[in-house]
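Supplementary Note 3. Input sequence used for the single-chain structure prediction.
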Amino acid sequence: MVRALTLFVVLVMIGLFALINWPAFTALTPISLVFTTVQAPLGLIMLGLAFFLSLLFTMWAISLQAGTLKETRRHTKELQAQRELADTAEASRFTELRAFLTTELARVAQASTDGHAELLKRMNHMEGAMRLTLEENSNVVAATIGELEDRLERGDLPPPELTTRGDGIPPLRR
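The predicted structure, written as C-alpha cells, is reproduced below.
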C-alpha cells in the first residue's frame, strides 16, 4: 500500500512538473534520427517515452505478480493434497494402532484369565495336598498319643536314660 501511494505521488509530481513547464516541453527542436534531422518537441517525445516505459514496467510487474499468484496457488493445492495424504496416513496409523491395542488387550485379558484359572487349579491342588499331609500328621500324632497312653496304662515306660537324647528332650518314636 505504501509503495503504491509513493509511486502515485511521484507520478503526480512528474505530471505537475510537465504542466508547469509545458511551453518548454512543446518547443520545437532539431532532432537527429541518424539518417535525417526532424523538427519535433523533444520534451513531449521524452515524456511519451517515459510514459511508454512506465506502462511497459507496470505490465511486466503485473505479469510477474500474476505468475507468482499462479505459482502460489499451485503450491497451495499441492500442499493441501500432501496434507490430505498425511491426514489419511495418520488416520490409517491410528486405525492400525487401535486394532493392535485391541488385540493386545484381548490377549492380555485372555492370559490373565488363563493365569487366574491355573492359579486356582494349583491352589486347589495344594489345598488338597496340605489336607492330606495334615490328616497324615494328625493320624501320626493320634497314633503316637495312643501308643503312649497304652504304655502308660501298661506301665511299660523305658528307663529315663534311654528316653532323653542328652539335651533333655525325649526322642520321638513312630
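The helical segments are 2-20, 22-26, 42-154, 160-163. The first helix runs from residue 2 to 20.
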